[in-house]
Amino acid sequence: MDFKYGPDLIVFQERARCFIRKHMEPEIDYYDQKSLFPRDTFQKFGSEGFLGAAVPKQYGGQGLGTIGYCLLCEELGRLGAGAIHNGIFQTQKMILEYGTEALKQRFVPGLCSGSIHAATAISEPDMGSSFARMKTIAKRDGNFFILSGVKAHINDAAEADLINVFAKTDLGLTVFLVEKGLPGFKIKEKLDPMGLRSSPIYTLEFDDCRVPDTHVVGEEGRGLSVFVATFNFSRLGNASTFIGMAREALERAINFAKEREVGPARVSDFQGIRWMIADLYTKLEAAVLLRDKAAHTEETEREVSALSSMAKYYAGETAVETVMSAIRIVGSHGCYRDTPFERLLRDVKALEIAGGTPEIMKNIIATSILGKPGKA
Ligand SMILES: Cc1cc2nc3c(=O)[nH]c(=O)nc-3n(C[C@H](O)[C@H](O)[C@H](O)COP(=O)(O)OP(=O)(O)OC[C@H]3O[C@@H](n4cnc5c(N)ncnc54)[C@H](O)[C@@H]3O)c2cc1C
Q1: Best exposed site among 87, 138, 245, 375 by fewest CB in 10 Å?
Q2: Taking the chain (376 residues) in consecutive chunks of 10 residues, what is each chunk's mean pLDDT?
Q3: Ligand 1 pocket, 154 CB below 6 A?
Q4: Does residue 376 belong to any structural domain of this protein?
């Protein structure tokens, strides 16, 4: 395994970093506080080619693979988890892996350029971690499916042009691409979340919404495979977002510690602070290595569920600890809303839950080691 990123990846990451610092960082507080999607800037970000990091060039992407997507999420993650809009990348992934050629041609270039915004709708008011209790159903009617149900906690649902919706049909879990404006689809409520606020969150409803069967991703009843492939990929984006958030918090804390004088010493001279920074740096480096190994495996082999879950779980634990410790290092300066620490703290906790909780990640890891739990 090569521990260095190639020149294409380095240039791409550097370009993304410059764009994010110049165009996104100055406005993130506004969108975070008001819980609004920064559409204009995000479309510009897409038009510069960033959203197609992992997509092959033939579909309008950059062809930089899973690690390209991870490095992009790492840079966006410096602003917090609300900056990522993972529905776009999840929708790209599932169409590329399971969609027909017609779906690829129709949607993927727009998902790369920023002209099509996308969301993922799986969770429901009574269902998050397990599909068993999913109530959203889709009944076949000729060349259509009729979709009914309520979805909860859905990022960017009102802003998206395309929503990938998980529902149960007679043949089992199935994924549908629902285009904006279809009769029977409505936004029920905008929510007021703690984190990911610049990726606004909604409850939505499907009331006999007719979706053409050409918009099924993969085969009817194969939704679990689509879910596994998509989330194995996007959990690496989550891990990278955690890494970006941890880096931002740690770098700010280190800069503060090196400058702040307390009596005859600087904060960075205190052994307690030095060891804390040494611990956090070590864990961050381990999170990056684990993420890189998982990203490499995702690209080269099919079975990556355990590694991808480890990457999200470990980077999440590291990021929560890092953001909390960074706030401790900067003292009172971390307790005000005109620094990014508060946003990072809210986002790091919310991202622990979104995309699969730490307990679910550990269940996947344990099952890969021990098999499913059962009677002796
Ligand atoms: C900020 C945010 C954004 C989100 N965005 C989206 C989105 O865009 N689209 C979407 O579909 N969903 C989204 N979600 C929903 C998210 O995927 C779910 O919240 C998550 O899967 C957990 O489900 P739950 O909240 O229903 O918790 P539950 O499943 O009810 O779990 C409650 C608690 O029980 C634990 N638990 C559950 N099952 C087990 C088990 N088998 N073993 C051990 N412990 C267990 C959990 O870890 C948790 O601690 C978002 C959530 C948040 C917080």
Answers
A1: 375
A2: 88 98 97 97 97 98 98 98 97 98 98 98 96 96 98 98 98 97 96 98 98 97 97 98 98 98 96 98 98 96 94 98 98 91 97 97 98 85
A3: yes
A4: no
